[in-house]
């Protein structure tokens, strides 16, 4: 969420486009609902692009080979600790055009949250994230609601600092996001009824 909001603040054109999509499909007479998510492909592109650039678990979780195997030509004995560098795959210039550029449009037309073995923010196989569907809905609902209800602004003139901090298994921002927001004039009545 924090990475997504930071990216949106640094790319106001994308934020506007997402807001327009929500206004078109949800309108401003009611709050965003989870069931709206299937009608908001651009919002999904933003989430996919955020998880591509800043995967929540950049090395997935440690795995262990249960039997001898060969991976990419390397012999891996059973019992070996294996880490998958998902950050490197998600940001590999050999498979992504301008990987460090935030371009949600690159995912237009993609159904779901995987793109072969290029985009795997929830891992893959039997030990992939067990709550992938729930997590995607939670992020979509929360992010969509923030976009629908508020106008967002940076604090000061500088772009939001996108440096990555030192995490354990996860990828935190080096500096917490600070932003200004005010209710969109069209949403004030609805928000005041909450
Ligand atoms: C956007 C949010 C989330 C992302 C991107 C995410 C991503 C991941 C990833 C990449 C893995 C490792 C998969 C692998 O090694 O192949 C994982 C594992 C796991 N996640 Fe998530 N996750 C998210 C939210 C959650 C939440 C909210 C929960 C719990 C309520 C959760 C519970 C777990 C558990 C229990 C595992 C370990 C599964 C196993 O080892 O069998 N995740 N997640």
TrEMBL record:
GO terms for molecular function: heme binding; iron ion binding; monooxygenase activity; oxidoreductase activity, acting on paired donors, with incorporation or reduction of molecular oxygen. Heme binds at residue 129. InterPro entries: Cyt_P450, Cyt_P450_E_grp-I, Cyt_P450_sf, Plant_Cytochrome_P450_Monoox. Keywords: Heme, Iron, Metal-binding, Oxidoreductase. It comes from the Eukaryota. It holds the Pfam family p450. Its cofactor is heme. PANTHER family: CYTOCHROME P450 81D1-LIKE (PTHR47947:SF3), CYTOCHROME P450 82C3-RELATED (PTHR47947). This is Isoflavone 2'-hydroxylase-like. It comes from Nelumbo nucifera (Sacred lotus).
